Amino acid sequence: MTDNPAHEEFDVIVVGGGPAGLSAALYCTRLGNQTALINRGGGRAAMMQDVHNVIGITEDTAGTELLSTGIEQLREYGCTVYKDVISSCSTETPVSTSAPELESESKSESAPTETRSESDSEDETNTTTDTDTAKPNTPDNTTTPPQISLSGTETTYTAEYVVLATGFTDVRPDPPLPRTGRGLHYCLHCDAYMFIDEPVYVMGTSESAAHVAAIMLNFTDTVDLLTRGDPPTWSDDTDTVLKTHPIDIIHEEISGVQNDADGWLTALEFEDGTTREYTGGFAMYGADYNNGLANELGCELNDDGTVAVDNHGQTSVENVYAVGDLTPGHNQIPIALADGAKAGISIHWQRRPFPRDLDLLDELGPVRAEEVPGLPDELLERAIEFHTYD
Ligand SMILES: Cc1cc2nc3c(=O)[nH]c(=O)nc-3n(C[C@H](O)[C@H](O)[C@H](O)COP(=O)(O)OP(=O)(O)OC[C@H]3O[C@@H](n4cnc5c(N)ncnc54)[C@H](O)[C@@H]3O)c2cc1C
């Protein structure tokens, strides 16, 4: 990792080194912005024992391997990578908190169900057009670009643009529990496939827990809903659904876990002395969004704690983007990657110096040959070194 000096400045800083942040940093760097990625480590992607649903990545790849390959790639393109924790942030010059109109929506239920509200399925164009984002490449803001300041452990960082990719933390139920990824799972869209025709549990008392238990009947005929002695909070309608589907609701608290030699769950023991066989299951206790930095910068939050964003990841605060699990939508790697890509492309569109717009042409005159290409020297040299056809 890079040694941390006292202060560093970049065009773009991405906070969070999961798939969303890595993707945003990759696009920002390769599109010609001096970019830093600041990551404290851990996160949801690092919890993956094996990666599913990512075309081109085989299932024997662990989340940590995917992340470290991503970091290597970023460095090769000239992104600066810090291992650090951003504890606070602020805007240094007036940054509008009202500029962008958001088209965001809240998740319809707590995150780990990996479902999205119906409005999420609306067609979202991937192409940033000249009309859908206010272009800041004007005389005013080229002379005084807004600066966003971030405080790390020993270093402060400033940037013109910040991408927040800080994700969320799955709320973990109390032990005793199976091992994560070996019988305890948080992501239905990732892991339901591995439980087809196997006995599964869903743990929790919420609407989401009941919903996921019913959804699991699409994959297997043995589904138990474990409340662990806590009172259910699902609605009467949901209660009717549960009673009219072949789901056993078990209220006894868990007292022990049985695993095979590889550490995979085989059964759970209950306080009444019974034992029930399971290959795995899902814990549904909600999400704790890492939205403190977004909140501090004044970004609008949705009721569920996600950060409100438009189709490109732009938050309600100018030059601040949010991507990945921190924002509404399915919590999946391909979606986090796409979020990062969209934010990177949108930032490029806003920062690229050419074509010079008519106001700037009036002020600065025609673009001279020696002003192009519009890349910082270091990134230009890196890119030339990178040419694969030489
Ligand atoms: C057990 C498990 C298995 C999964 N399996 C799959 C799967 O097979 N396929 C799939 O598509 N999806 C899977 N998912 C979902 C997938 O992991 C997430 O959707 C994805 O990781 C979201 O990426 P992200 O970058 O938004 O967040 P994360 O991966 O959570 O990354 C957020 C990063 O931000 C960092 N961070 C947070 N706050 C700060 C701060 N203040 N300063 C610096 N850094 C900070 C964190 O340390 C972390 O590195 C799984 C999730 C879990 C929990």
TrEMBL record:
Coiled coil: none annotated. InterPro entries: FAD/NAD-bd_sf (IPR036188), FAD/NAD-binding_dom (IPR023753), Ferredoxin-NADP_redctase_2 (IPR050097). Residues 91-154 are annotated as: Disordered. Residues 126-146 have a biased composition (Low complexity). Residues 10-340 form the FAD/NAD(P)-binding domain. The keyword Flavoprotein applies. One of its GO terms (molecular function) is oxidoreductase activity. This is FAD-dependent pyridine nucleotide-disulfide oxidoreductase. It comes from Natrialba taiwanensis DSM 12281.
